[in-house]
From TrEMBL:
Residues 452-567 form the DALR anticodon binding domain. Belongs to the class-I aminoacyl-tRNA synthetase family. This is Arginine--tRNA ligase. GO terms for biological process: arginyl-tRNA aminoacylation. A motif ('HIGH' region) lies at residues 122-132. The keyword Repressor does not apply. Its main location: cytoplasm. Signal peptide: none annotated. It catalyses: tRNA(Arg) + L-arginine + ATP = L-arginyl-tRNA(Arg) + AMP + diphosphate. It comes from Anaerobranca californiensis DSM 14826. Residues 2-84 form the Arginyl tRNA synthetase N-terminal domain.
Amino acid sequence: MDKYKKIISEILEGLTGLSRQEILDLIEQPDNPEYGDLAFPTFSLAKTLRKAPAIIAQELVEKIQKPSDFSKVVNLGPYVNFFIDTTKLMEETIKEIIEQGDEFGSSNLGEGKTVVIDFSSPNIAKPFGIGHLRSTVIGNSLYKIHKFLGFNVVGINHIGDWGTQFGKVIVAFDKWGDLETLNNSEDPVKYLYDLYVKFHEEAEKDPALEDLARDTFKDLENGDEEKMAKWQMFRDISLKELKRIYDILGVHFDSYKGEQFYNDLIPETLETLINKGITEISEGALIVNLDKFDLPPILLRKKDGATLYATRDICAAIYRYNKYKFDKMLYVVGAEQSLHFKQVFKTLAIAGFDFSENCEHIPFGLFRFQEGKMSTRKGNLIFLDDVIKKAISLTKEIILEKNPNLQNKDEVSKQVGVGAIIFGDLYNDRIKNVIFDWDKILDFNGETGPYVQYSHARICSLLRKSVAEEVKPDFAALNSEYEDSLVKKLSQFPDVVKNSIQGYKPSVIARYLISVAKEFNRYYHYCPINKEENPNIRQGRLMLAKATAQVIKNGLNLLGIEAPEEM
Ligand code: ARG
């Protein structure tokens, strides 16, 4: 639509005295096709021209020389209504999509701009729980969308690899664990987690354990070699497991610098903040009072000298700005941390770090399973690994039933099962809580990932079955309302991608893909393709189908979902 809006702004510029930008801002996309594809409202001209809007619209239409991209330009009440010439649009859109292929919808909008995205960031003393899935999935999609729009993107996994919990794991390991069992364990992360759970059970009986853990963490902060070696070993084991999960999900990071990385930089950061005169000592602790901003004080260093999550976030932000000189830094973290980020950004701001204005918390709601739909393991935690396994096995059952002859069932079950989880998340407005229901997200006929993937695979199969013909496509004959509305949908894809970063909403793309798949299935129902006798029309329709598959594939890709050609 951008292209058409631009043409309209060029025509109306001279006729209205408005700037092109003002015109672009005014142009509307009517919901009702009877009002055309684009409409220009004349209300804002009424005052200066001292005429009724309907009259202004009428006069404008008389003066406009209809450009070839539009089939008609009329005036309906106070609007100038533009109807796109669909034959031309049909041909241009289909050719453009097929020519650009995987690049269709991309742009250089973000050229020269760097966006840092902090996402996933699980805590590794614990197993990868379902809570971090949303951050992973939303962050990964935002990463891909920004790349597609030409931004230079840096994806950072701010691993939670520091804090008292590591004191706890080390204490527990020394007391009840042993190296051999750990090394021979099939699931070492679970082994460590069990120790962590045991620590809490024992600490209920013997509170002295908590002090021991705190001291152990202090030793870690001070660089105690033996303890650091254990920490390093636990981190390596956890990271290996994490990477295995990221591989299944198809997620990539440019940096795994976790909280520990900033340990050595903290004294310098604290000194900077102290020198700026924004800190104070309160009951032995170093804090920044944020009363003036209606925020609780931020705690930077405890009485015992230990630093905190917030301290490391401040340190990390400064480090990242120096390293990447980002234009934007996004933190994809649950809404429950809103206050934390407000405090961190405000502290950076009053310390004079102007880049804080370009830091943004991208919050999201909670993720819950429909009651009884997922059993929990110890500690009431749902493990992402179990969820993924279940998604894949449920998908495999469906595939065995629907398409028992499919070649690579395991690979496709993985693509579709994982796709169902991702889509089931991204389809929702991110700020809303998501209630996860297996029957819903795996419904091949519902508003789901499998439905979109299935529509894509169906087109691929259609294309495989059709004989390649060297005939000219007859685009003019593709003039049913189904073909019209499908091609208009496809032509909107580049705009949809751009809109999705307005407010950082992958859901915009997910919802669009559902409507593309629906439009296609309607078109396919009413307009025969391989049964069509005229080879030129058949060719045109095949090309429209091919373009649809391409758009679906590109859209799924931006959500981090694969598009199998058969399923
Ligand atoms: N590890 C943290 C948690 O699970 C999330 C970290 C988010 N990123 C950040 N820079 N604070 O709560």
